[in-house]
Amino acid sequence: MAEWKYRIRIKDCFVDDPNSLTEKEVNQIGQNIAERIRKFNQKLDVNSICYDDLDNIQDSFCHVETVDDIDLQLDQLYDICDENRIWVE
């Protein structure tokens, strides 16, 4: 079992029925997730192996327009975090 070094909490950014969201609501969720990643990334050393990856995915979340966009970015976030022992909840 993996030992997690860090944790990013994003689960409270989501809603029960994502299919009923407007583009503006989807974008707001993306902005909220991006803000959580930004705050987390500020705690890391700029030379950290995942700093740039998290910075890039944070930027991507700022530009989501659909639920599928969020899903795509979440897949990338989970991959980055798994590789760097960061628990996403």
Walk me through what this model shows:
This protein has 89 residues and is mostly helical. The chain has one domain (6-88). It contains 3 helices and 2 strands; from the N terminus they run E-H-H-H-E. A two-stranded parallel ribbon has the order 1-2.
Main features:
single chain; two-stranded parallel ribbon; 55% helix; 89 residues; mainly alpha; 3 helices
Brief synopsis:
The protein has 89 residues and is mainly alpha-helical. The chain has one domain (6-88). The chain has helices at 23-43, 51-61, 67-83; strands spanning 6-8, 86-88.
What is the helical fraction, as a range of percent?
A: 55-70%
- Gross morphology is globular
- Give the count of structural domains: 1
Oligomer: single chain
Structural class: mainly alpha
Q: Strand order across the biggest sheet?
A: 1-2
**Helix segment tally:** 3
Mean residue pLDDT: 91
Strand content: 5-15%
How many angstroms separate the termini? 17 Å
Q: What string gives the helices and strands in order?
A: EHHHE
Low-confidence stretches: none
Q: Mind telling me the C-alpha Rg?
A: 13 Å
Record field, number of beta strands: 2
Largest sheet entry: 2 strands, parallel
Task: Give the arrangement of secondary structure elements.
Layout: E1 6-8, H1 23-43, H2 51-61, H3 67-83, E2 86-88
Parallel strand pairs: 1-2
Helix pairs in contact: 1-2, 2-3
